[in-house]
Design a protein that fits this description.
The chain is built from 2 helices and 56 strands. The chain is mostly beta strands. A hairpin with a 4-residue loop joins strand 52 and strand 53. The two termini are 64 Å apart.
């Protein structure tokens, strides 16, 4: 979470006196000699990529600003200063602007444009990676040079810079840009997802920053579920009878940050608040602003009272209050409240704004900023009062490790991640961790909190109740499981080279709908619900392990809906279960029958970026094609989606691969889900015992992420457990090798030579005699108990 940007003109932030101020930029543009201030040169200073054509005309700047160079668009030389024309912008170099950063500069309009100067310039403090705003300040300009200053403690260590953005097509002149930085901390490590997670341990992972050491904190949380509700009426603010703040001790509410452009003016309205309130906060000048306290778990409710207090007869249009929200992605200028709306008859005595519902559009909002931006000639004051907000009660932390020191490894590869194995955890709790860096007497801010969402890994036990028709799979497991998935695996030993061995086949015949294939061309398709991620679809497939997002269907077809354009909703996609596709150097063939928008493409994407192919939808949309996917892996998953995020449907998917004699190919022949997390056994039928392959089972635990049944997190699968065929086989009959296995409605006999098969009832009566050729032969028998004799060996079987 990022700290809210504040600029407090009445109170300087404390600095570390041992650390000198660093001048990052000191640019007076004296190298730009062409043109004059009011008649800039006609040739642009930058190329089509926004880079300066002659960067040597600019002064050197601090080496820490290496992420981006000077740049922009619409920039011209203006006789010792720089001109921004036609509503374009100037970017400073970007890089390490952490700590307390202050920029000073001069700016004015070119002559003859004075009436365009209101709110003419935005100074934006931002990350050049992703263009995330850390702060934004609007300035009004005149035809005379003015000096401006802006401070922030919100920059990062790698990608921060300033942008001068023209809010007008009038020519703006900029000069004497100076940026200074006071170090306050060191770079925060980037914590990554934990590895090797078990009920009792995990491996913490983070990206090093070159620090001397790191402090690891591991803790569980006790969440009360309670909400803290706050009402702030500003009654405790200390001001005189005219509303001027006590300069020495204004007693502003704790945690709030206020900005006043002119401290000599009254900033408290006395006796003008709602419901008899004696005090209200008063924003008077352009740039007057305040920010709520930071709530690290997010604001859950927010409302406030707002009133306009005009002091002139004719109120100009165009003034507004800018409402910005602080999110995971930076400061977002979210809403503009028109001051003219506050002067309507219904709002003249004040109006309550409740933005609780609107806040839900963001994953989390940590604080809210209000800034007054009046137009030229508007002397209206804006009053704020009766702010109410709510946030979750902070969780109680129980530390397993607190500031555990982890020394950096001096000789380690700079690109290698740091790790620490955390052990001895209580399996009843979920854990979180953060990391701080320590160097040169500084301790960094904590990293982003990483949740270690453990899912108990099952341990398989020996199977029981084994017959030719089935067996009971058994396992044991910890408590962090909501669902178990038991997979029956046939591990085939390939007896001969095969060019198109089937690894996976799914025809989506379990998908039921009153819409049929004939409805597809008419666009008559059953729509599902948009999702924000991938969820399991085990009820729609023959094998478990498939996942999908934003589904739609017709009978026997499954597909994805097109992009909705709504934040938090993703378009449709279908993901296969994990498969071993490492044979044939990872190359496999995928055959699909599908339907989609003409000239769109059905993309098939594997785990590796290179494991990719696509099928174009022709006129009419229906297509059946086979494509080759390269560089697949031993734990491969293929994702099917529309290249242009359009709607699509799939009738069947078949994955085949070239295999060689002796290869071991794993095929899942059955998969069963149970949502009874107390069960530790499952009956598995039709194991298909026989020569040339072995039968195994494995168990995977799944846990719903914080109870969300659409977001199941899987454990690592258990080890594979071999299921030995029951004693219903005949081995080594003379010089032949044969086996007898019961199947539904009879027996299956495999032999390497010509043999005579005799079938007797338990009373000794011969029921059948047959000469069998080499290979596998299925023999139909009525239900009952039989003695099966092959050559001179016999076995007793039960046919059901």
């Amino acid at each position: 979470m990022k700290k809210i940007y504040t600029i407090i003109t009445t109170l300087l932030l404390a600095v570390l006196t041992a650390n000198a101020q660093t001048v990052l930029i000191n640019e007076d543009f004296s190298g730009l000699t062409a043109g004059t201030e009011d008649n800039p040169e006609a040739t642009m200073l930058v190329d089509d990529m926004g880079d300066f054509i002659n960067p040597s005309a600019l002064k050197p700047y601090d080496s820490g600003l290496s992420y981006k160079k000077w740049g922009g668009i619409g920039l011209y030389s203006a006789g010792g200063c720089i001109a921004i024309k036609d509503g374009w912008f100037l970017n400073t170099p970007a890089g390490d602007m952490s700590g307390d950063v202050t920029i000073t500069f001069r700016a004015r309009l070119a002559k003859g444009q004075d009436d365009t100067g209101r709110n003419a310039l935005d100074l934006i403090f931002l990350s050049r990676k992703g263009l995330v705003d850390f702060g934004r300040k609007t300035y009004s300009l005149t035809e005379e040079w003015q000096s401006f200053s802006y401070s922030s403690d919100k920059g990062n260590f790698e990608t921060t810079g300033f942008q001068f953005y023209a809010n007008t097509e009038a020519t703006i002149l900029i000069d004497d840009i100076r940026v200074e930085r006071q170090q306050k901390s060191i770079q925060t490590p980037t914590a990554q997802d934990a590895e090797n997670v078990t009920d009792y341990s995990f491996r913490a992972v983070w990206t090093p920053t070159g620090a001397e050491s790191y402090l690891l904190n591991v803790y569980s949380k006790k969440v009360s579920g309670n909400t803290i509700n706050v009402s702030e009426g500003f009654e405790g603010v200390d001001a005189d009878s005219e509303g001027r703040l006590n300069a020495d001790k204004p007693n502003l509410p704790e945690g709030w940050a206020f900005v006043w452009t002119d401290l000599t003016k009254p900033h408290v309205a006395m006796g003008e608040g709602p419901d008899g309130s004696t005090k209200a906060i008063r924003l008077v000048d352009e740039g007057d602003a305040f920010t709520t306290p930071v709530m690290k778990d997010g604001v859950t409710a927010f409302s406030f009272w707002l009133k306009a207090q005009p002091t002139q007869t004719e109120v100009p249009d165009g003034s507004y209050i800018q409402v910005s929200v602080d999110t995971e992605y930076g400061l977002y200028p979210w809403k503009f409240i028109d001051v003219a709306d506050l002067l309507s008859d219904e709002a003249r005595d004040g109006k309550v704004f409740d933005i609780t519902t609107a806040l839900k559009a963001f994953e989390k909002v940590y604080a809210i900023n209000f800034e007054y931006v009046p137009v030229k000639g508007d002397n209206t004051a804006v009053l704020f009062d009766n702010v109410t907000y709510a946030y979750p009660e902070p969780a109680e932390l129980n530390y397993a490790l607190k500031d555990q020191k982890v020394e950096a490894q001096p000789n380690a590869d700079a690109e290698a991640d740091m790790t620490y194995d955390v052990t001895g955890l209580d399996p009843e709790f979920d854990y979180f961790y953060t990391v701080k860096a320590v160097s040169d007497g500084y301790v960094s801010e904590p990293s982003k909190e990483i949740e270690v969402f453990a899912v108990s890994q099952p341990t398989v036990l020996e199977p029981t109740d084994i017959t030719s028709d089935g067996y009971t799979a058994n396992w044991t497991c910890g408590n962090k499981v909501d669902v178990y998935r038991v997979e029956q695996v046939q591990l085939n030993t390939i007896d001969k080279d095969t060019d198109d061995y089937t690894i996976l086949y799914e025809d989506f015949s379990k998908v039921k709908s009153d819409k049929t294939e004939a409805d597809i061309e008419k666009g008559n398709i059953e729509q599902g619900e948009y999702t924000s991620g991938y969820g399991p679809i085990d009820d729609l497939t023959h094998l478990a392990g498939w996942k999908a997002s934003s589904l739609q269907c017709v009978d026997g077809w499954l597909g994805g809906m097109e992009s909705s354009g709504v934040k938090g909703e993703i378009p449709g996609a279908i993901v296969t279960p994990a498969m071993d596709l490492s044979h044939n150097e990872g190359e496999c063939d995928v055959t699909v029958r599908a339907w989609g928008t003409e000239d769109d493409w059905l993309v098939i994407q594997g785990v590796n970026p290179a494991a990719y192919s696509a099928i174009r939808f022709p006129e009419g949309g229906f297509v059946e094609a086979t494509v080759t996917i390269p560089t697949c892996t031993k734990k491969e998953q293929l994702t099917f989606y529309s290249n242009n995020y359009r709607t699509f449907l799939i009738d069947y998917i078949k994955v085949t691969q070239k295999v060689k004699a002796g290869d071991k190919v794993e095929v899942v022949t059955s998969s069963v889900i149970t949502d009874n997390n107390t069960t530790k056994s499952m009956y598995m039928d039709r194991p298909n015992f026989g020569p040339g392959h072995d039968i195994y089972y494995r168990v995977t635990g799944l846990r719903y992420y914080h109870g969300n049944r659409k977001d199941a997190v899987a454990s690592s699968p258990s080890d594979m457990m071999l299921v030995k065929a029951p004693a219903t086989s005949i081995q080594t009959v003379g010089k032949t090798e044969s086996s007898v296995t019961t199947v539904a409605g009879g027996v299956s006999v495999t032999t390497t030579d010509n043999v005579v098969l005799d079938v007797f009832t338990v009373t000794g009566q011969k029921a059948l005699t047959r000469t069998l050729a080499p290979g596998t032969t299925d023999v139909s028998l009525a239900p009952g108990v039989y003695i099966i004799k092959v050559a001179d060996q016999a076995v007793r079987v039960v046919v059901r």
